[in-house]
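WARN no homologs supplied; continuing
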Amino acid sequence: MIIGVPVEIKKHEYRVGLTPDHAASYIACGHTVYVQKDAGVGAGYTDADYKAVGCKILNTIEEVYAKAEMIIKVKEPLEPEYKLMREGQILYTYFHLAADKALTDAVLKQKCIAIAYETIVDRNGKLPCLKPMSEIAGRLSVQEGAKYLEKPFGGSGILLGGVSGVPAANVVIVGGGGVVGSNACAIAVGMQANVTVIDISIDALTRLAELYQGRINTLYSTEANIKKALSTADLVIGAALIPGAATPQLIKKEYLKVMKKGSVIVDVAIDQGGTCETSKVTYHDNPVFEVDGVVHYCVGNMPGAVPYTSTLALNNSTLRYGLSIANKGYKAALLADKGLALGLNAHLGKLTCKPVADLFGMEYTSPEDALR
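OK structure emitted
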């Protein structure tokens, strides 16, 4: 199969779809890998690194899309890429279609084959290609939140862990039972904050309570509990997730009125619409805005800030599925692996992700029916 790796054109996105080592795995299986010039520079990889393992370098993104049977990238295609996608071409990347009707329309119009990292499921029912980025985003959320609590960045001026004789900050994690939330919890506890985790899963809350042995508070997710927790919060992490679907907006605009001035919300779920009603996508060069005195951090590609770590982590999780698609052909690979088939979000003009179809009121075709 002919593989193409384009430069990511999302603002301040430095990750790359394949590292040289991972590209070499495709080449060792007999596939051809084309990489756009300087695609890996942001993550620390030069064109010479790719050439050394047998990749071919192309100058433009148009050339990469024109030659490739399968595009491997990181973030969803943006509008300039829509016209480059073609019928029958496989795009293997994050899509987050529930947050982007225009992209959904584009992949259907172009009749490409959209295989989304974020909806692939492993044998344990987990999301293996979403997990590493969720781990990174969860850990970054506390790091970034602590920074924006600083007065020069618009925050209230509270130190997350406090000091002797001065209380620590109150951190509230909304949707804390998943990968993002549990990683945010680990970092917040490690920084000696007072941590409250809110989730709808009693099992998840029990697991966290037992793990931290009284060092955190847990609350069942109700409107009353969320609102009460927000009233004393210094830092709020929005970490709710419904795989493939729009994120439930658990933090209503009206709740901001009970929050402290200079408190911070880090909405990690913004790439699926956001946990907070007042959230909107921001970028690394201008990551925050204020609503009702509350600082909102809503960067849609948080792991892009640490591209070396996140590129390696992403490649480690996506490689085996990508090789299966390339080695067997996408139909055989998806039909042989039901979890991988769940990654099929669109196929030759048919929408194959039910949560997205339900959200937009569009016709749904199951992956199995689409592949027949």
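The radius of gyration is 21 Å.
OK
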